[in-house]
Specification:
By secondary structure, this protein is mainly alpha-helical. The chain is built from ten helices and no strands.
Length: 174
Amino acid sequence: MFSFIIAERGWMNMSKRFGIEIKRARKGAGFTQEQAAEALNVSVRTYAKYEGGEILPCDDMVAAMMQVFDNPCLGYTYLSQESEVGRLILPKIGKLPGVAAGAMQYHIALAEASSDSMKLEKICCDDKIDAYEALAIQPLIDKIFELAGRGLTLWLTCPKRTQKKNRPAATERL
């Protein structure tokens, strides 16, 4: 019983944090709570509970929010904070940098992963990994995971994803 209460409280804290992200996405898209609720086909009261962290939206609702608010970061946040599976498999992205910094971070991670590709191929070529190779492969896998995180970061920060509708991206020439 006691561990259930602790787990429940931890879940509520996470839901409150996600509620803040929902509110940030809505405001970033220029919606009022009423407009968001209407676009998502839920009551204003239910929508307010999502933002307040009182209830956690289901996967389908988060997907709809991503589309309505044009904010894929909301989906990443949902999976990485609210889904046990997402927490286990998604790469960490940290604070989203600007597009140029994101591109440079991706390029550095790509160079590091590429420099180790021959080592990885040598270990994996026979489709068997012995105890020594298991130790050697982990840092290589970590670099690939870092590359995946940097690629996801770049995708989330690219101008097509972050620009407002009918406004040019900062990287476009007028």
